[in-house]
Amino acid sequence: MRSQRNSGLAGRLTLLVVTCLCAFHTTTAIDIPLEVLGHVNIEQLPTITDQAPSSLIAFPFDESFPMTCEAKGNPEPKFQWEKNGEDFDPYLDPRLMKEENSGTFVIPNNGNLTEYQGTYRCYASNKLGTAISKEIEFIVPNVPKFPKEKLDPVEVEEGQPFILKCDPPTGIPPLQIYWMTINLQHIEQDERVSTGLNGDLYFSHAVEKDSRRDYCCFAAFHRIRTIVQKTAMSVNVKTRGGDRSESANAILERKPSLLTPPGGSSEKQLVKGEDLELECIPEGIPTPQVEWIKIGDQLPVKAKLENHRKLLIVPRAQQEDSGKYMCRARNPLGEVVHYFTVTVEGPPEWESEPQSQLSMIGSHVHIKCSARGVPEPTITWRVNGQLLQDSPAANRKILGDAVFLQNAKASDSAVYQCEASNRHGTLLSNANIMIMNLQPMILTNNGEDYSAVEGKGVMMHCKVFSSPPSAITWSRDDSSESVAGPRFTFHDNGSLEIHSAEKGDVGQYTCLAKNTEGSSAIDAVLYIKDPTRIVVAPKDLQILKGSAAQLSCLAEYDESFSNDFELLWEKDNTQIVLNYTENPRYIMEDGYLNISDVSHGDQGVYSCVAKTPLDRDTASAFLMVLDVPVAPENLVLSEHKSKSVKLEWIPGDDHNSSPTEFIIEFEENKWEPGNWKELLRVPGNHNSAILRLHGHVEYRFRVYAISAIGAGLPSEPTERYKTPPSAPDKNPENIKIEGHLPHEMSINWEPLLPIEHNGPGLEYKVSYRRQDGQEEWTEHTVKRHSFVVRNTPTFVPYEVKIQARNNQGWGPEPRIVSGYSGEDFPSAAPDDVAVEVMNSSAVRVTWTRVHKDKLHGHLGGYRINWWRLRSLVDSKKSHGDKHSLAFPGDRTHGTVPGLTPFSEYSLIVMTFNGRGNGPGSHPVNFKTPEGVPEKNPVLRVTDVKRNSVSLAWAPPLEPNGILTGYVLEYQLINDTEEVGPLQAVNISNPDTTKWILHELEPLSKYKLYLRSCTAVGCGPVVSEESTTALETSLASVHGGISTQGWFIGLMSAIALLTLIVLIACFVNRNKGGKYSVKEKEDLHPDVESQGINDDTFCEYSDNDEKPLKGSQRSLSREIKAADSGDSLVDYGDEDVQFNEDGSFIGEYGSRKEKRASAEVKASTQTPA
């Protein structure tokens, strides 16, 4: 998007005056700009612009060696060379290659370079002065060689120290020493054997394996690409014969001493920036351990120990690393120490480097030069390449570290050289001192246009060259006054900087430069632009590998940049360049960056760059790519034992989702080859584990990581690891003692897995005895995992134990398990069975326990069987289906729910065990009180008139008591938010099945509610909707139909059919009760604990009972009889169980009782 803002010239700023002094270049070599030289021919002192390095090494593989010396000045400088302090003219040597108008010459590598070896210096001169280069040393290295020599064999007693000398030849550093055999195999080095800094090979004590005839020292000079070899050396270790006793070994032991350095102390000097290397190589038996201490201080943080702690290295040593160091070598017999006094010196460094200056005639010039270093550098002054004392001047003095020129003249222009040197190096600086007068020359173009972003800074330039320095003033819009204020900064180079530019800063500015020689001025115009800013920045994302990512970015910018605005995307500070051929996954469109199929390489910082020619804004977001962890690597087995091994691994890349755990799997090649199984889980911050193993198994292991993203790939498997055979580690588990028959006891157990056998020949020893006696154990050995003990007494406690063994021996001592022999049916029934009626549909049953001697097994609980004898509405008995509930455990009561109200029932109680049910108790009869009726099965509208509606209904199929009448309610529910008041009609005649509602509003919708009632209360509601009609239209239709013969015949047939259905329903009702799913849901909690009363089973919930607006129904629609619904108890012999508190633990089982649907004949008669 782009913000639309107006830009243009604003009101003028208050004009203030400011003046600055400006001179061209005050701290660097003076360069006369080309713009000045185009108008005035100004002479310049020579300046060295390029030169060869201080050391130029003639490597044999280089073709030539340039001695570079380039300079500039006006007039053009001329060049001269010195070699070793004497004049050297390259033009006199035809072998040297020269370049025109240059001081550079090239030495060709023609094989004869020694005569050019030496120290060179270049002089660049014109009539104003002379500049000199640093000294350049041209080095021609010799090819290093070991001398040809015959070396005697080294004879050494076993246990004694010895040293093999290398004495490498000198050459161009760095030097690297290698000790190898003739076959170029490295000599193994450790705490006993090591190479010193001088290249010698040190042995703290000799052992027999040190004897060999091909110890070779190789010296490698990498810069000249040369490796030279010393004559092979022979070592013969004389052993102490066959005496290997402890006393002989004790004689060999001795306290430490140092092979190097000698003595108790030494001094070490080095140059700052070099690596400090201190070495202590001890000898002794046992091999001494070395430790390092800095006296009075801690070892430098950057210090490191190498060569088995024998070498202390402090990289890039500084002055603070000076001091006293100590090494200590110790073993159980004693210790030895050596002290190092370390001094870190340094080459010269500039404290104040002389600077080139442009000064006016008659001024005083101050040239300062100072340097620091260790030792203190010596300062040498030169002018035009000559020592200052060899070129005296009356107005020049040296005071301390500075040269002073008083009342300088144009002829005092010269090149001054300051050289600082000590034994570690030399610094040289040329300072061009120009003495001249020149009127101001403004080098910046006139009429420049500048643009600035509102709120940002802008710099308007006014580059001036003059001597003496000019006074610079900036004014605005043809005003004679100059601008100033806290937002304006005037720089020494003449530029005007405006901070936090405002719209009012727009306008024309003038730069005026004045000095004693004259003045000059230029104009510039400033425009202010709206800033570019990102208004919708990309947000950090976490993306699963393989999915798509989208980053969004929206920016505003000045409308003048419509053709120059760019919205770019960068990844990790590198611009994303679209190439649909090479990288089609990146799509940039309308400020969105879409990346498809994200990979790990897409992770990084993505930056949206909104860019105009004047400014830019950037916003970044981090895209994190999530993936499952990479497979662990480098699995290593260690600490090998007969039944365990240690596994270590290196975790793979976690892909930004740290492992929560590692899973170790195993595979064995005997029982289930190729099948990997989980062995162990360890936390995600571990990388090793001790694995407990079985005997006589060949294992392989692998590891994979699990993170929040998922499971990674498994590692490569380890090599095979075979454990030896062993006795079993465990005995069978989950031993079950069961008695399926009265005189048998069956013993079963889980067999050991094949991998748990730990070896061949597995079998089990089964031991058993009676628990209540002092019998000896009866033992049997079997290979299967079951055993049957026969001829046991009925339900007697036994002790059993099972032990595993194989060819290697017995498993651990088994634990003893108790159990009983076979059960028989209980032989007694509960006594004192009593029934307490709780409400119309539930009773509480109590009884006395059956004695345990009559149980003949484990008590399973008690079971109540009950059946309905008859409904109390009529006197006809109809024996209903039997129902059953089981109450587990030892208890004396239970609650029977779901009974039909106003009925007579009978029940019995029995106990049961694992074998089955015992005999039942004497039957107990009881009656349930009245309840509320069921919902009426049918309610329908039979006739509709202008002010009345005729209704007909069927009585409830299960009245649950003596019907006392009906409650008929109705209310107006026209298509509005409000409903009319609820009006009620109490119908006291229970035989009434039809009614006419009068005085209704014409053409209005009503909702009608009907409930059946007993003395206890009213039952659930059934509802219907109806709309009254216009009398004219409905009356004509009604009159036309009701007078037809076929209509009268149809109504008579319907009335007869309805009577038949009602009679069938009445008969069916007396067959036995069912209760509804609603009652099942209400009774599912603990009936006893909730204090059940009669009202509990009278509540109902139906959307139809709510006086809310309903949908319009057709007057002629078909009315379906209400379904009796699912019942909680379906009669049958299946067991239904309750928890100890009486709640359900099972479902009823019985035959489902079917009920008939009923239709009620429509009638227009009004009750009398």
From TrEMBL:
Region span, Disordered? 238-268
Coiled-coil annotation: which residues?
none
Q: How does it sit in the membrane?
A: Single-pass type I membrane protein
Q: Which GO terms describe its biological process?
A: axon guidance; brain development
Show the catalytic activity: O-phospho-L-tyrosyl-[protein] + H2O = L-tyrosyl-[protein] + phosphate
Cell compartments where the protein resides: Cell membrane; Secreted, Extracellular space, Extracellular matrix
The Fibronectin type-III domain, residue ranges: 631-726, 731-824, 829-931, 933-1032
* InterPro entries assigned to the protein according to its UniProt record, in alphabetical order: FN3_dom (IPR003961), FN3_sf (IPR036116), Ig-like_dom (IPR007110), Ig-like_dom_sf (IPR036179), Ig-like_fold (IPR013783), Ig_I-set (IPR013098), Ig_sub (IPR003599), Ig_sub2 (IPR003598)
Q: What is this enzyme's class at the first EC digit?
A: hydrolase
Family, according to the entry, reads as follows: Belongs to the protein-tyrosine phosphatase family. Receptor class 2A subfamily.
State how it assembles: May interact with L1CAM. May interact with ITGB1/ITGA1 heterodimer and ITGB1/ITGA2 heterodimer as well as with ANK3.
Protein name per its UniProtKB record: Neural cell adhesion molecule L1-like protein
| The organism's taxonomic lineage, starting at the top | Eukaryota, Metazoa, Chordata, Craniata, Vertebrata
